[in-house]
Design brief:
By secondary structure, the chain is an alpha+beta fold. The protein folds into 3 domains: 181 residues, no CATH class; 138 residues; 74 residues, no CATH class. Helix content is 59%, strand content 15%. It has 10 helices and 10 strands. A hairpin with a 4-residue loop joins strand 3 and strand 4. Helix 6 packs antiparallel against helix 8. The longest helix has 93 residues. The chain is elongated, with a radius of gyration of 45 Å. The two termini are 72 Å apart.
Length: 437
Amino acid sequence: MHAKFEAIGFTEHPLRQRLNNEFHARPPIPLAGPVLVSHLVFKHDGEAPPAEKAHLSQLCQASVCHFIENSETHLMLDTGSFRMRWELHTEFSSYTFFRPLAAGETLDPDATAFDAVMPEWLAAIPGNLIVATHVELRPASEVTPESVIAGLSPTGRQMVASQVADGAGWIFSDFMFDNGFSRFLVLDVSLTQRQAGRTVQRLVEIETYRMMALLGLPVAKDVGRWLSGAERQLADMMDRIGHARSPEDERAVLASLSSLAAEVEHSVARTTFRFGAARAYHGLVNQRIEELREVRISGLPTLSEFMQRRLLPAMNTCAAMARRQDDLSGRVARNSQLLRTRVDIELERQNQELLAQMNNRAKLQLRLQETVEGLSVVAITYYGSQLVQYLAKGGKYLLPGLSPEIATAASIPLIALLSMFGIRRMRRALAAEEHGH
């Protein structure tokens, strides 16, 4: 931390310096033509960045390297014969080589800016090559725009061209591969070195983001074929719901819907990142083209027009497939909820029938209980009268006029009434206790 900050006693956020350095990272390299720029992009396939950094260090073992920038995510070095910039991104790494050209130097079709690099080192770069492009920067005094336009064949490849930076430069490309590379020609009319560097950087970024955006198109086509079958399955399931006549049929359809929902969510999880990345890369392509400030050349399409015709339909396809997936997911969820509601209603009906049956059984048990209570009164009366009879037989010796038979007969109604009163009182007490809880 700065001494002034230390004196005050500020506690600096640990990421403050790193965030500010990231804000100023990767500035355009000032360029003065003629120069050849070769840009390579390798998509990561689970390769860890430390392995890539270790590979970069091997480049300086065979030659003396002067590091202009060096961080965890970007690197700039100069070997004398070429310059190289390396950048680490989320999905890919880019290697941009710069080689000065002599005035009027004619390039071989196979010439690259990394001819001085060991082929073994290039072949060992981690990842799969997704972008390879050349940008040739020439002064307009050396190669005039008129000569380039005059050399275009009306029956040849479609050339994309425009003036950029308010007419300070011209760019030409056909976005086709020649010897494995796409090619851009930039003619410097009155570009400053920084303008030339920004123009070249934007062109290689347009090519990079264009190819990365197009990675979503094969996924969209695969998803489109799968969606057609899934939508037919959903329609068939809806027909089965309409023809379901029993809970077993509804449960079978619900199981099929749950299986389809799992497949849809798996597809959404598998493609969400790819479609989101395609949308983001497409936005970057449009942004970089807008920053070029193109001016149309009569008879030739601009980069913006070319991307509108060629790239936008692919991006619209990705967006349409993403929407179809989301729509199918919502429809499956809604239909599953509808079917679950039907199943729940049927279960509630069955539960009501079961409760009614239980209620009938409870009433029957109550009647049986009342019958048993009546029998209990008879039993209690019988045993009570027997006790009275035994007492009367024993008491006749004390009371000679007492007849055991008459005493027993007289006690029977009294015992029966007392038994009934006691049982009913006990029932009322139990019912009150139950309602009280």
